[in-house]
């Protein structure tokens, strides 16, 4: 098991699927993550229109083929077959162009697209993302404190990496940048699409990548937005992301003859310095105690303390403070037993262990105060692929230091919710178990605990692809609001309000689900049993003290990483924290303090291929 004195934290662009190890002699591309996100919107693909109604068409491709909302398809109808007059070789078919459509809804096997231009479209027609070269204009906007040379270096590096994919013909967008600058449109409004339509039409720009290079925490940062100006398409971003400029990208030496590349002002006003003691926990987490670092991509060390080493692998975990005795508690499971600990002086004291009487795998555990007696209950879900067992959820409480069953063998997947934001989960949701698909799409009910029984207290509006494992409630949409955030089946974080999706991450934030559930009745296309990965519960905590939550999700496609999702005036951003440990993070918790929260992580070292055995270190951040 890896042992390090401190927790090494590095900030990289989040949610990106690893593309494999690079050759040792070749440095990784500086903006590979950004290029991969853009590339994902342009797969070479042909689909069939299986249904056409009004301005909506249903396509025969979905998540399995990598379809995302915002993708653009050209619509066409096939005609007679063409053959070479001498050789008889088939050359394809005559095609009639019908218009364009933009994907608005995506399911596993199909998707729905809105027709932005064209008419007379019928089922049996085709939709295509061209396999040819995509023309992509790249333009840059600068900010005070960022040199024109660095702006030029960023654009040059991004353009080269886009061209290297063989998928894009990159076009210089200096003229378009000059047009929006002359129109006095601020960069933050340009990123929202303002002021782009007219110059895009003038310069015949069909697709545009806007890069805004600015200073964040006195480091150069890139806000990137991908726009489309195809017929009928609104100027809303197809993709949005942000990342710090890697230290390998540097401004070229300044020469008198070099002209300004973008709209960045030449003035470089002094940057206001902030005392380290006044900086937020989130800032220190990302950037360390020093304001300036010579290596923008460097790592920093953060104090960490190991409070316990458990002789079993923790597959799920939760942390909460008991309203009655104000003692913090941690609940964990290895898939077979449930362990409840008291956290005393940052050490774990075992309070009780529960094994139960039903076979299967415990896939999640949560701490909640459902009957508001001040004593925390443990809400647990257990599953067995045996048809005689299936799903068997239950609720435990503590009685004189021992576990006792409150609810037993409940046939729904239970999810405890902090609906008010006071830090204690008091509301209980249930999602019906589907023996074919595991999760019943779009159907959730609210329950209350009465006399040892769970009673329906109404239905809950949720998105159709919502699943109660890997979900949380937060005010990330703004102080005073409550938004539902969950990891969907593709590993993306979705934020919804009142059952309507408001945002989802472009790339994966999940991938840490080490509990694999087999459904015997459900079959894939090859006739094999279906397997579902249970994501760990995300952690909601205010890291920067602004009253608005951040959401942390164990990521682990690169083991030991966490995705951090934050909201702000510019929208949502996703970052990745590299803990520096080579073991996966299987659970997260936090104790909210007066100055900064204490983060608690479960770092697991599996000793078997099936992940049935291993050991776990419980790690906490310290105040030193």
Biggest β-sheet: strands ordered side by side in the sheet: 33-34-35-36-1-13-39-38-37
Structural class: mainly beta
Query: Tell me, what's the shape?
Result: globular
Distance between the termini: 25 Å
How many β-strand stretches?
A: 39
- Radius of gyration from CA coordinates: 26 Å
Largest sheet composition: 9 strands, antiparallel
- Global mean pLDDT: 80
Runs with pLDDT <50, length 5+? 1-27, 254-278, 287-302
Range of helix content: under 10%
Count of separate DSSP helical elements: 6
The fraction of residues in strands falls at over 45%
Give a description of the structure.
The chain has 624 residues and is mostly beta strands. The protein has a nine-stranded antiparallel beta sheet with strand order 33-34-35-36-1-13-39-38-37. A six-stranded antiparallel barrel has the order 2-3-6-5-4-7. A five-stranded mixed beta sheet has the order 9-8-10-11-12. Strand 31 (515-523) and strand 32 (529-534) form a beta hairpin. The longest helix is centred in the first third of the chain and has 17 residues, at 148-164. Residues 1-27, 254-278 and 287-302 have low confidence and may be disordered.
